[in-house]
Amino acid sequence: MDYLNIVLGLLLIALGFFVIKYYQEKLSEQGGLTFKIRTTGIGLIIIGLALILEEFNLL
């Protein structure tokens, strides 16, 4: 088992939630990159989950 992939997956998940939460608090009034920023956060969460699931041979 490679612990680096698990740690990296957890960090990506945390970063994804941080991006979405930061967007909701600070940037939602300005408009512009609405869809792209939310999609980036969701993408980071999915990549993190994939890394973790692949490490445990569930994917």
UniProtKB/TrEMBL annotation:
Transmembrane segments: 6-23, 35-53
Keywords of this entry: Membrane, Transmembrane, Transmembrane helix
Protein name: Uncharacterized protein
Species this protein is from: Hanstruepera neustonica
